[in-house]
Batch of 2 targets.
Target 1
Amino acid sequence: MVKLAVDINGYLLKNPVMTASGTFGFGEEYEDFIDIGALGGIVVKGTTLHHREGNAYPRMAETASGMLNAVGLQNKGVDHFVSSIYPRIKHYDTGIFVNVSGSTIEEYIQTAEKLNGLEQIPGIELNISCPNVKEGGMSFGVHCPSAIAVTRAVRDVYKGHLMVKLSPNVTDVTEMARAVEGAGADSISLINTLLGMAIDAEKRRPLLSTVTGGLSGPCIKPVALRMVWQVYNAVKVPVIGMGGIMNATDAIEFMLAGSTAIQVGTANFIDPSISVQIVEGIKAYMLRHDITDVNSLIGGMLID
Amino acid sequence: MVKLAVDINGYLLKNPVMTASGTFGFGEEYEDFIDIGALGGIVVKGTTLHHREGNAYPRMAETASGMLNAVGLQNKGVDHFVSSIYPRIKHYDTGIFVNVSGSTIEEYIQTAEKLNGLEQIPGIELNISCPNVKEGGMSFGVHCPSAIAVTRAVRDVYKGHLMVKLSPNVTDVTEMARAVEGAGADSISLINTLLGMAIDAEKRRPLLSTVTGGLSGPCIKPVALRMVWQVYNAVKVPVIGMGGIMNATDAIEFMLAGSTAIQVGTANFIDPSISVQIVEGIKAYMLRHDITDVNSLIGGMLID
Amino acid sequence: MYMKKRVELFTVTRNRRINNEYIVLYAKANGELPDISPGEFVEIKVENGQNTFLRRPISIHEVHQETNEMLLLIQEVGEGSRLLAALMPGDKLDLIYPLGNSFTVPKSGRMLLVGGGVGVAPLLILGRRLREEGAEVNFLLGARDREILMDLTDYKQHGLVGVTTEDGSAGVKGYVTDHPLLKERLKDMDRVYTCGPDAMMRAVAAVAKEAGIPCEVSLENMMACGFGACLCCVVETREGNKNTCTEGPVFNIDDLKGW
Amino acid sequence: MYMKKRVELFTVTRNRRINNEYIVLYAKANGELPDISPGEFVEIKVENGQNTFLRRPISIHEVHQETNEMLLLIQEVGEGSRLLAALMPGDKLDLIYPLGNSFTVPKSGRMLLVGGGVGVAPLLILGRRLREEGAEVNFLLGARDREILMDLTDYKQHGLVGVTTEDGSAGVKGYVTDHPLLKERLKDMDRVYTCGPDAMMRAVAAVAKEAGIPCEVSLENMMACGFGACLCCVVETREGNKNTCTEGPVFNIDDLKGW
Ligand SMILES: Cc1cc2nc3c(=O)[nH]c(=O)nc-3n(C[C@H](O)[C@H](O)[C@H](O)COP(=O)(O)OP(=O)(O)OC[C@H]3O[C@@H](n4cnc5c(N)ncnc54)[C@H](O)[C@@H]3O)c2cc1C
Ligand SMILES: Cc1cc2nc3c(=O)[nH]c(=O)nc-3n(C[C@H](O)[C@H](O)[C@H](O)COP(=O)(O)OP(=O)(O)OC[C@H]3O[C@@H](n4cnc5c(N)ncnc54)[C@H](O)[C@@H]3O)c2cc1C
Ligand SMILES: Cc1cc2nc3c(=O)[nH]c(=O)nc-3n(C[C@H](O)[C@H](O)[C@H](O)COP(=O)(O)O)c2cc1C
Ligand SMILES: Cc1cc2nc3c(=O)[nH]c(=O)nc-3n(C[C@H](O)[C@H](O)[C@H](O)COP(=O)(O)O)c2cc1C
Ligand code: FES
Ligand code: FES
């Protein structure tokens, strides 16, 4: 038997495969396809203090080996999550993380507070990197002082695991990583989407209502891998890597680069059962390579 | 007849299609395939003050809709360019721009000075964005003070057209653009490659000798288009856009986003005649859309 | 009844070319095909496409329950649909299905089914089901010209078929709204269903609304997942944004904002 | 004589399967095939690959000048080669060619041509040309096992053929360096040519060097362009970095650093 469990700074995932926020709904959308309990963890849709309608349609454009989205954190607000959604999903036999966003630090604080003490929610993922909202979102995550401020403020009120999700749209991601580590993050997840844009040459119009949007999928994998490796070498807290993971090989690359766990995002749209297949694929790789503990892959890239 | 000529701040290109540095050699490599004179301009290989052997092999990895490279500015130095290469290529009936790199400001200055007064070289492209060298290169291009310093220093000594090439590996590309504009850039080209990385999961080793390298190709197009649009809206000097341009439609998208001219890079490897085909494709688009002057495409994206 | 969504590898049994732009793929399930309701769609993985990263949503055109075959009407508009149109018997088709809600199928009444372009696809299975339930079916199918007009044989089995073409090369010249079925006989109808280009659906919806006749539209919003996970396909309704892929693609126009 | 490089659409005329992993594609030029020298290669555009952004470099295995056909020996190792191996007569093949330098072809002497795995590809045309010029040809071909051993018929037309397999299922058991041709009769040879896995070529080069016999190797460095524009394929030589694609793929081992 191979050992698949990984410890993200005190919280144990049964295996390193999680799903990425905004690509996995609240898990329910995938119940027809997989046993959610087979996953190491899931991160549910970005949640804010108040109900948000998100951005206008169109919100999506296909790009080379990827896609742009401009959903803009559409959600019914944290109270709705706690009262209506949580009771429906709390039976999942996996760690449920809530992705938390806000326009002001006060909103982040209040949202996090409302998630305190939900027994089946071991932690939150602080989204300081959403490129698709006018205020807050990414603006917190691209400058150190604001990243520190929001992380520290939430750390002060939130009792569970605090994962902070970084933006790739920065000059030096290690600076941001060290900043949020210093401010109390228990783990760091990355990358969120790259800010991109697409144009319809025939109509001479942007393809997204918001003109720019977030790029995800295999096209961003090289950038994501690089940032995971950089951050892994810069901080002590566990790194949760993502960005274009489509299969078990990709997942293993992220672990070799320094990820303790990984998140599967856009790939879920193309194959809704891929996350569970990745768990199986990691097992197969370990057997083939005579690896008994998945932890030995973390940061295991060999450099001469 | 359609009008294809564009003016990049005083220098006239016969059409908006240039080729990108490092992907077009010195033009000679393409003589078998195309008439170089059919292009608006070419930017030759990155040139430094002294001879450089570049990075160790392997220098290349294929990625989803793109590639990573870690060539590391291999070149024989500016003196060799002036004495041996320039005489061989100066007959090209197109604008030849030399891509200039350095490890210190002094090196940039000396290299640029040696290119002064070469009659068939209307300008240089200042590469302050190369991610593949340990010193200099990108480090100049990701912080405003150094970008300003190197641009101003070269501006003081170089008499021709000064194009400055920006790195996409920054938090705010408009800040960099305004900085180099203020420091005397005649035009701004972007984007250079995104810093990325690739791993061989089976061998558990990086695919590049340098671990990280520069990502190019269609995978980066959404990021490039976004940055071109941002910079177009931030500065007055002309913008020369590039990043994943594979065909005329892509080229037109870059013009609509604000490019006065565009550069074709990685696509040359896949089809060595693509640059000239793009000139033809732009003509065809203009005829189909009843456009008589290509200049009307520049920044022509319609937003409600 | 809720049908569990699934990912399944179908086998192409036939590729029937309708005209220059349209083909019908016959895709056979491995086992028994579940019940399919008119209006539901599939998400197809396009193998070997260099620019087809996401799946492609395609309506279920008709179902042959006896042979466990699903028919998909595909218009070649880009790389994805061209690759699908090139599939041959024996090729595999990776589908997620059944997706979306479905059209209302009353047991009686006079129904007008208005389709434009490839939007005629879901109207065939809808027409059949309406007829089987006991309603009277009237099709009104619009096309650019006779060259890309659908094969009408199948439709004619289920009801009357009116046709318009923009150039008058078949049926009434003009848009569907120029056809007597919509201009004169609309008031005799109990319900209008429409699927096709946005402009056409809005025009049909406008006349139906004016005549006070219930109207259901099937929207073709851009979709990334097709099963409610990405929130990319939203449409504004009176109750806020709804997912076209799960709460649609069929909407009653009274529920849509701006229709 | 310098042959102008060109991009040309060839037509596949035959796909000959050699074994489980190898096929030979016969590709016919539109017009007259230019002179091809042994060691030259082509860059193939892999259509419809989802992970094949760059062209694939493939050696020219043999040329049939009469029919203007080029033969390419392809080993299925990944998506690109698998898609190429699935091409059928009538399919198009987009090639850039002829690329690279070529092997030395003296008019006399005793030659040893050592190939491992798919590295045997360029040795066929080389063997023929050497024989035509008047040299004596000895092939030594290594394979993992008999299942993936080359069809030797063509090679036997041009000279003697020695074989090794790692499991001894055909020829001498072991690596090429275990074969008498390299262990005992090397001293009779005037020149060694080798192409195959890096480790094999280095082993062959080492024994040749020790014996003081000139040795040419054909390198398979990772290439992005294939025609000298990207500087990705460099190899360290005594005169600094050289492009494997233009100044190679054939190098005399004396010129290579660390060989
Ligand atoms: C619920 C639903 C049902 C559909 N049913 C059918 C059907 O039965 N038969 C059929 O042929 N098509 C149908 N479509 C449209 C079909 O999904 C698109 O035509 C297809 O995805 C285009 O893919 P492509 O790669 O060929 O074109 P692309 O190269 O991706 O695009 C080519 C052109 O098609 C248009 N297009 C792309 N995606 C869509 C879309 N989602 N809706 C409308 N236009 C689009 C683009 O504007 C573009 O100009 C349906 C769409 C939806 C959302
Ligand atoms: C000058 C030259 C001549 C060649 N001649 C032949 C030939 O005649 N027949 C033939 O079958 N192959 C030949 N190769 C190797 C061939 O180019 C690769 O096997 C092919 O590109 C793999 O593509 P893929 O998409 O199938 O595999 P990928 O999925 O890209 O890779 C699969 C595996 O193949 C290996 N590989 C990828 N590229 C190369 C490469 N350039 N060289 C060696 N290994 C590689 C990788 O390490 C990887 O593990 C030659 C290579 C060069 C440089
Ligand atoms: C449609 C969509 C919606 C997303 N919504 C969120 C979100 O609400 N919060 C968040 O932190 N990240 C969100 N993301 C980013 C993903 O969680 C992930 O960081 C990114 O997509 C990169 O991973 P991938 O390439 O595997 O998709 C979203 C991504 C997509 C594609
Ligand atoms: C192999 C290779 C070498 C490059 N060398 C240089 C260089 O010397 N100087 C430079 O400014 N940019 C260099 N670039 C970057 C390109 O000029 C261009 O900015 C980048 O590749 C994005 O465009 P593309 O996606 O069209 O290739 C190089 C790119 C590649 C792929
Ligand atoms: S397409 Fe993803 S939610 Fe509708
Ligand atoms: S492969 Fe580009 S220079 Fe050799």
Target 2
Amino acid sequence: MTGETILAVEDLTMRFGGFVALDSVNAEVYEGERLGLIGPNGSGKTTMINCISGALGNYTGTVRFRGRDLGSLKPHRRTRLGIARSFQIPRPFRSQTVRENLAITIEYATGASGAERDDRAEEVLQSMGLGPRADAISAGLTQIEMRKLELARALAARPQLLISDEAMAGLSSNEVDELLEILFRLNESGVTIIMIEHIMRAVMRFSQRIVVLDAGKKIADGEPDAVVADPAVERAYLGD
Amino acid sequence: MFTFDLFWNALVAGALLGGFYAAVSLGLSITFGQLDIVNIAHPAFVILGAYIAYMGNEWWGFDPILTGLVAAPVFYAIGVGVYRFYYEAFERRDDEALRGLAFFFGVMFIVEVVLIMAYGVDFRSVQAPYIGGNWEIGTIGIPTRMFVPCMVSIAMFAAVYTYLARTFTGRAILAVSQDRLALELMAADPVRVKQVGFGLGIGTAAIAGALLIIIIPIEPSVGRLYIGQVFAIVVLGGLGSISGTLVAALILGVAESLVSTFYGPSWAPAVAFSVLLIALAVRPQGLFGR
Amino acid sequence: MISLNKRGLLAGAAALGAAALIAAAPAKAAEPIKIGFSMALTGGLAGAGKSALIAMQIWEKDTNAAGGLLGRQVKLIYYDDQTNPATVPGIYTKLLDVDKVDLVVSGYGTNLIAPAMPIMMQRNLTFIALFGLAVNDKFNYDRYFQILPAGPKPITDWSRGFFELAMAQDPKPKTIALVGADAEFAKNAVKGARIHAKNYGLKIVYDGSYHPKTADFTPIVRAIQARKPDVVYVGSYPPDSVGMVKAATEMGLKTKLFGGGMVGLQYATIMTALGPKLNGIVNYDFWVPEPTLNFKGVEAFLKKYQTEAKGKGVDPLGYYLPTYAHAYLEILGQAVKATNSLDHGKLAEHMRKTTYDTVVGKVKFAPNGEWAKTRTLMVQYQGIEDNKLDTFAKAGTRVVLYPKEWVSGKLRYPYTEAR
Amino acid sequence: MAIELTVEGVEAGYGTVRVLHGVSLNVREGETVALLGTNGNGKSTLLKCIMGIVRPESGRIDVEIDGEKIDLVGLAPREVVERGIGLVPEGRRLFPRLTVEENLTLGAFRGAARALLSDNLAFCFEAFPVLAQRRRQLAGSMSGGEQQMLAIARALMSSPRLLLVDEPSVGLAPILVSRMIAKIKELKDEHGLTVLMAEQNFNQAIKIADRGYVIVHGEMALAGESADALRENELVKQYYLGTDL
Amino acid sequence: MTRFWIGAGAVIAIGLLLAVTDIIANSFWFFAAYVVLQYVVLATAWNIMGGYMGYVNFGSAGFFAIGAYTAIVLYNLVKAPLLVMIPLSGIVCGLMGLGMGYLTLRLRGVYFAIGTLALAVVLETLMVNWDYVGGATGAYVIRPRTLEPFGDYVKFLTFVMLVLAVIAVAAARWIERAKFGRGLHAIRDDEIAAECAGIPTLRLKLIATTLSGFLMGIAGAPFPLYVGFVEPASAFNLAYAVNAIAMPMIGGTTMWAGPVIGALLLGTAQQIANVTISSELNLLIVGLVLVLFVTLAPEGIVGLVRKYFGRGR
């Protein structure tokens, strides 16, 4: 099922002023895995992926991708190495069409150009079901379309590791299922996926393994059933 | 050549000059610093104020500062009108950054041209008993022409500061750019609050204009000279900090005066802008940004 | 000084209109003689430019009333250069190629004369300039003439009088402070003063320049004061002239001679604003209502000017620039009449050798186009007690001290006592 | 002297995404009602609908104050506040560059509260002594727990009849969460406040609540049950941990 | 060869034809065209940063002036010919642009705009105090009277400016269609998202500011020869900064045609207004038009055209 370690986080700590958002977190992600990253609001999930994707560069500790210390590598270099992310609040290139959003990402992240680029963009469009909206200006998309675009853009970078940050918040059950299908398919094609999600139903269904953060610390790491049964997790969610 | 005599005198002259700069910057400190409206036309309003003071002085022999005080409410109303327009045209459409800037560029032109059409481009000045006097305290000379505006400026700062700190609307003005929704949850109407704030900012221009014409003769395009300076002070002082603006103005005045006295007056403006550039690069939130 | 380009914008319709305008105008007989120029009607020099224009229009009207030139009427064609040198080349080519003017004169000021020079030289046109300082030093153009009475060596002639006055005092001054604005004229004025100071062996104890937008001159005056100079020479523009005078009187500047090249102190609005603060200052001037300078026609001209100028926001007295703006057209007119021609070669030839009689007196050009002999006056403000306009229209408030032939009073010396 | 909030069949969302699918609840004078559920289920959206920040697509939101019935739908947030309903917003939304005291005074902007400024200020400083100590400190420079207290105090400054609290526990260490909850209980007990509290921390919230609603995917999964009943209900855990699948 | 290049070639060929023959005897047209074309270059250069990348440069006048002053230095040093001045002015301003690019690391939005304004003032003060280039007094640059086969030297200058304008527009158009331009657009829309999409934002910004600076520099290089006399006040004239912003805003900032249309319209109108209506009114009209466009037609003329004739994209 899973292979070698693709991503390793060692003693990752991030401070904002006096506030410790992440406190010596250690975690590993294996090749081909579907990992769920959960935790109550404010537990440090987004901070953690900001550190992994390079959006926050001044962390202490180490983030290794395929054994390589990412150090202070900029986000675009990490994207090119194969780490792609989607944003919790969609951040499309608002003045561009959906297709252009993808094309830009493809050519910068993978270096493809011309017909190859356009084919890949088309491929991603189709796989995400965005085909009919391909030439719409992205600022005018609906919420679900924006979320799909967000994910599509991450896919366009041809990631080996995809980090999906709350791609499903606010979507209907059908839409959640739709996105889940896409992510499953993607995983089958060999992409390792970290899913951050509040919708527990989705996380439980999707994840092979779950890491739980609470107040900046990792409190559980294991198979979904075991994690849910963990009293610490129950405490984190339901409170003391 | 350095003597302590010169040094202290430069310090005093700089502080007086800085006090005046502060008056010109106060309005922008409110509109730009507190309300996030890049009112590049502010110096044009100051010039407008200067012409009103000139008219009062020339026609009826009114004291320029008094005229400024009387004109302030009218300016307040103008400010309210300009803000309404700005709000409807840009802010409400969430389209303020670049186009708002261009809008105020246009407003600046319009104010200036109207003044040119009305007064031509001759230099105008005013008469007042405190223009031309000089107090000697030991070896330090204090020209009343600089001293009076400086004092009025400080009084104006104190008044505005008190208003902002002590009244409900004042505090709302301080808060509006920090969190609009939260302010609405305090039962305040952010648009109305910004309207009052903008009016207040433009209102100070009436008085700052009166001070300007006391210090130097003016013509309609003089205002452009102050754009950079005024922005420098407001940014240096830290956006959102009224007292920071005062301190930054004083620092700039003193820096200019010292450079002027000991190094060469022609480098004075470059010093101000270099300080600004460095401040922007190293500490964009300004000296007193909080 | 930042001078903004005050250009306009027209809709397409206006563009078409202008095109039509340009396309029209076929040559006709007995068409008026067209004299073209650019003038600063907006921007930094607009105050002066507008007053010059009034004077020129008076000449136009008078000339036409007297039957014109060569039996033809004269017509001034002018455009606003907005005090922006970049507009000047375009304006003169428009005047020459589209409006087909017969004669050209310059706009006001060095910055706006220089950009026209290459065009004049290209086409070998006779060009009379209004108040350019040493423009021809660089171009060496033989058909350039200049009405500013600076003299053949403009840079040094400008302050010659000031230094001759200073050195004639007993005891002779030993030290001098030089200060000027960072702008074209002021720099040149101070440059000339520096040369004089060296030649006379004066020790330069302060030599500084300031940005023209300086708001407070107190630190500068104090820095000068600290060096205790016997003489203070200032090269400045109107707003800073005012600032300088105010700071000097407030600080009680202690020196023996103060002034020199301060532009603006000749303007009525500024004189009335400063009033008694002017007393004791010795400054350059070109014409003042002293009996020695009562040239033929000047009084009549000023009367007309003062009537025209009312309510136009320009200099109400018109001594400084308007007289000369009138005079440079007088010279042009006299040359046309004398040569009975509009040929630029003949006109230049005539101007090189003739002495003209104008409202500013006799004018004779040197080979480089400057006045053959300097008549930059040095005047001292004396006995001013109020801020009324009439005060400055009287003889005796600005006493001519130099050159000798025009002297109308005595120097009050030193400055500290003359004040 | 009575206040009662009634929400009926509210549907609301953002853009084309519907977050609330016909939600009803009610809060009566003197009660503390907990609105429970994990994130993303619509708790905040419901509070925002009540405050007029989000406009419902359908449904009714009424408040009855001293016999007078007011329809809140269509009112601007400040108008809702003027009617005596205060909100401690999610994420606290303090004015970070204002001092503690300035933040508090702004809380009294409401017309009816202005005259009570000094009383209310004294009350808040007494209720939250840490705020009194830090009255001149900038709000943005305080710790999360202190900020949350300030947010609550600021809402109290408007003398609300009904206080809505959105996720007071977010970003707080467990010890602070219980302290915060205890504080809300204390305020409620001592001053007879009516409180509607959205909270993901079930166990903490249920300690002080009289009743509770559990909202799942924009629908009321459990409505209006007493605190004890909820505590016993095994469904809650399933909803929370997604083990219902 | 695309339509654009055929058009560009035709424009240059016609320009050359007009410049070397006397078909247009009236040299006013050349003087006026020079100024308008200079604004085409300046507005296009501004738009690469302001329109494509979303960074507003208030200091265009500073770049223009340094372009002019570099030419003066070269003239004073070795009487360098124009064709040497242009690339060197471009390089000097390009390096300045590079420096400004590093400012974007710390400054965004309004702060960046104010930073550029400050930069221009510092540069002006430096020039005022640098006597080698004339300081405050100004510097004379005597242009040759004629240059064969153009005749009048200004015809040659105008032709050169036409070529520069075509180069600038071609560069802008290339950027717009290239990967580079798409990257800039992404930066304008969302810098962080762009970075995460694999776009090396800093490198792109530096290239754009350098290129923009370079183009402004070459726009300023022939200026000394055109006016013959340069002093800081005229070289740093605020008009350059204002027009550089107003022209693209009026024309439309999203595509290369915007600044060109804006510059041609506003520039031509200004040239006409110069010699027709009273200037005070001119200025008022500039102000009103600017206010009108930013309030009513935020996408500029290009936007209006698109709106009424469909989205020609």
